[in-house]
Amino acid sequence: QVQLVESGGGSVQAGGSLRLSCVASGRTFSISRMGWFRQAPGKEREFVAVINWSAGFVDYADFVKGRFLISRDSAKNTLYLQMNSLKPEGTTVYYCATQSGYGGSRRDYDYWGQGTQVTVSS
Length: 122
What we know:
0% helix; 122 residues; mainly beta; single chain; 4-stranded antiparallel beta sheet
């Protein structure tokens, strides 16, 4: 199993920045991709960004392109999400997740963190 712990959430004004972190432990050798998702109350969990753990290839949801940056520190088993130019609609819980494959669906992720709240005020 892989355990994931997110941190870095908080409250920020619109236009501000936050950096989320996600530390992985356990069977980290099985990780192929790590991603960030977010879920607002009453809505489905949606994809934000993903990174291939070894090669570093990244992909983003259209609504964060140019504002968010996903990165990782393999030596520390840590995933990051630098969020800039935050908008009020970004007030959600952010989750990190891992998968041992390379699937593009939320269902392809095997392990999830507990989530970290991000609140963006206008």
